């Protein structure tokens, strides 16, 4: 059976699962951030996603849903993650528009616009040891999978695989953006916390669309 | 973790209640976590707004008052405040002459203040300018990092630029002065211990008893180098030398700050200032004004930082101008 359309319910399920993953792994994300940052990524993401789920209500359109998500993250997370994840979701919403479901192509376009927003807000490039290193490969894999005729569920699974590989590939990198960059060579040998939470984002998407 | 708190998640809200109780001359917006002066910004005066993660007290809320800031936005511990806080502070503090955002150079702070400035300009047409403070010489290869961090110089800049705004200078003049102060100051910090973020519950990093971190910032992040613990005279040298190597401080009077990170007693800070003063004299640097104490801290981290600012008669005059805030008070 294939799922051609991604309904609003599934998108809400994506966010609910992402909240569960960052909440369950709050200590782990903070531990990663303690090694090369300032020990707040887990608590920030958990606080932000808890606020998102509290505020969701019953949105009728994809743009309304993601506007709420983005604005809530921007206003409740702070740090660098707030504007970055907030911008990501806001752009998905504005790109999708007032529709009540997405198909493979519009899902891809939304995520891609979100990713562009992350790049323009954070100015990170691939290899800087940031969330970009997980998100970029994930979206490339999603597009490749859709391009070869897969449905959104299979494409999301491929995106999650690629996000994990991208996350793992941040371990040896020397950070060039964010607070970890102040450590220079000492930032190598640790997973990037932002790439790790981004891998959870795609895990949640894959599970929600499965 | 042993801390004077009720619960880790309530630290900021509870601390703001305490600031409110201790300082009736300030107004605290608890919902938005903004500290304002007790009286509105004088019409036609440029409003100065700063903010950042909490845990650096007295920075920033302790510098709200006559001669310094008009408002300060408090974020969670070590986490930048959010754009809607800054937008609200900008709207409330603007007295028609525009607003200067004083931002310490950290990725999160810069992004959140950028979003806030865009929102304030788009929604209310408020003229917002920003100064991004980046004085930390510990950050080498700054083209390959997020750039130099904003640390101790932020305190001196808020004082001097605050005095200029109080005099009635317009936004362009205030921005030009802030830029000049930022270009004329440098800092370097060190830590004897890590600090413990309340929500993390344990020290951010482990530092053996016989080691210290040189080149730390103000968030309990490890420094650039971990080296064996040394006598104060040697530590002073390891802080002062990189500063003097980065900028010439012999061209005029200098304002010097020996700042405590929060967990070092004043007797040690004065001892360190004595060592720093000796080194500066030997290097031909004339210290005209100084501050010794806890002015920009990193929770309970033990350690200190040195900040030097190359001044002139104008900057010294602004430094000496009256200031009345919880953290700095003179001439009133």
Keywords summarizing the entry:
heterodimer, A: 210 residues, mainly alpha, Serine Threonine Protein Phosphatase 5, Tetratricopeptide repeat, two-stranded antiparallel ribbon, 9 helices, 2 strands, 3% strand, B: 332 residues, alpha/beta, Rossmann fold, Hypothetical Protein Tm841, Chain: A,domain 3, 2 domains, six-stranded mixed beta sheet, 33% helix, 23% strand, globular
Describe the overall structure.
The complex is a heterodimer of chains A (210) and B (332). Chain A has 210 residues and is mostly helical. Chain A has a single domain (5-209), classed as Serine Threonine Protein Phosphatase 5, Tetratricopeptide repeat (Alpha Horseshoe). In chain A, 69% of the residues lie in helices and 3% in strands. Chain A has helices spanning 8-24, 26-36, 41-55, 62-76, 81-96, 104-122, 132-147, 152-169, 193-209; strands at 5-7, 101-103. In chain A, helix 1 crosses helix 9 and helix 8 runs antiparallel to helix 9. The longest helix of chain A is centred in the middle third of the chain and has 19 residues, at 104-122. Chain A is globular. The N and C termini of chain B lie far apart (41 Å). In chain B, helix 7 links the parallel strand 10 (253-260) and strand 11 (286-293). Chain B has 332 residues and is an alpha/beta fold. Chain B has 2 domains: 12-184, Dihydroxyacetone kinase, domain 1 (Rossmann fold), CATH 3.40.50.10440; 185-310, Hypothetical Protein Tm841, Chain: A,domain 3 (2-Layer Sandwich), CATH 3.30.1180.20. Chain B has helices at 11-22, 83-93, 107-124, 153-167, 171-183, 232-246, 266-282, 313-320; strands spanning 26-29, 34-37, 47-54, 71-77, 99-104, 128-133, 185-191, 211-214, 225-228, 253-260, 286-293, 303-310, 323-324, 329-330. Chain B is built from 8 helices and 14 strands. Chain A binds chain B through residues 30, 34-35, 37-40, 43-44, 47, 74-84, 121-122, 175-179, 181-184, 186, and chain B through 53, 75-84, 106-108, 111-112, 114-115, 138-141, 144-146, 149, 197, 199-200, 204-205, 217, 219-222, 224.
């Amino acid at each position: 059976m294939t799922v051609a359309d991604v309904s609003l319910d599934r998108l809400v399920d994506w966010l609910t699962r992402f909240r569960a993953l960052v909440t369950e792994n709050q200590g782990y994300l903070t531990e990663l951030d303690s090694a090369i940052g300032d020990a707040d990524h887990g608590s920030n993401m958990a606080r932000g996603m808890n606020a998102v789920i509290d505020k969701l209500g019953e949105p009728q359109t994809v743009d309304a849903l993601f506007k709420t998500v983005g604005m809530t993250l921007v206003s409740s997370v702070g740090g660098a993650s707030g504007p970055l994840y907030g911008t990501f979701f806001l752009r998905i919403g504005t790109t999708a528009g007032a529709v009540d479901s997405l198909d493979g192509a519009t899902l891809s376009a939304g995520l891609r616009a979100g990713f562009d927003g992350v790049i323009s807000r954070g100015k990170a490039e691939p290899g800087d040891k940031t969330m970009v290193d997980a998100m970029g490969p994930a979206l490339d894999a999603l597009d490749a999978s859709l391009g070869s005729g897969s449905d959104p569920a299979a494409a999301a699974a491929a995106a999650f695989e690629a996000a994990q590989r991208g996350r793992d590939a941040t371990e040896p990198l020397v950070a060039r953006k964010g607070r970890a960059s102040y450590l220079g060579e000492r930032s190598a040998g640790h997973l990037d916390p932002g790439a790790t939470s981004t891998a959870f984002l795609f895990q949640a998407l894959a599970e929600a669309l499965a | 973790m042993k801390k004077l708190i009720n619960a880790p998640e309530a630290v900021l809200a509870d601390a703001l209640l305490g600031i409110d109780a201790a300082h009736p001359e300030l107004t605290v917006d608890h919902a938005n976590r903004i500290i304002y002066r007790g009286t509105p910004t004088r019409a036609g005066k440029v409003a100065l707004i700063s903010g950042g993660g909490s845990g650096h007290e007295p920075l920033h809320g302790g510098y709200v008052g006559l001669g310094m800031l008009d408002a300060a936005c408090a974020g969670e511990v070590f986490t930048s405040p959010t754009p809607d806080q800054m937008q609200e502070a900008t709207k409330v503090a603007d007295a028609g002459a525009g607003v200067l955002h004083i931002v310490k150079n950290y990725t999160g702070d810069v992004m959140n203040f950028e979003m806030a400035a865009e929102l304030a300009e788009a929604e209310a047409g408020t003229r917002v300018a920003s100064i991004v403070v980046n004085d930390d010489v510990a950050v080498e290869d700054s083209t390959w990092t997020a750039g130099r961090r904003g640390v101790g110089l932020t305190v001196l800049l808020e004082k001097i630029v605050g005095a200029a705004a109080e005099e009635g200078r317009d936004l362009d003049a205030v921005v030009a002065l802030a830029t000049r102060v930022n270009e004329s100051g440098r800092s370097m910090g060190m830590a004897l211990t890590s600090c413990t973020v309340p929500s993390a519950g344990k020290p951010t990093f482990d530092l053996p008893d016989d080691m210290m971190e040189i080149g730390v910032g103000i968030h309990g992040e490890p420094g650039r180098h971990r080296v064996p613990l040394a006598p104060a005279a040697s530590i002073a040298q390891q802080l002062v030398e990189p500063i003097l190597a980065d900028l010439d401080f012999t061209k005029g009077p200098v304002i010097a700050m020996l700042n405590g990170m929060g967990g070092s007693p004043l007797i040690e800070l004065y001892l360190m200032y004595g060592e720093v003063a000796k080194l500066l004299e030997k290097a031909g640097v004339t210290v005209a004004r100084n501050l010794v104490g806890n002015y920009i801290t990193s929770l309970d981290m033990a350690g200190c930082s040195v900040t030097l600012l190359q001044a002139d008669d104008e900057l010294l005059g602004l430094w000496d101008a009256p200031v009345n805030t919880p953290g700095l008070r003179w001439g009133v």
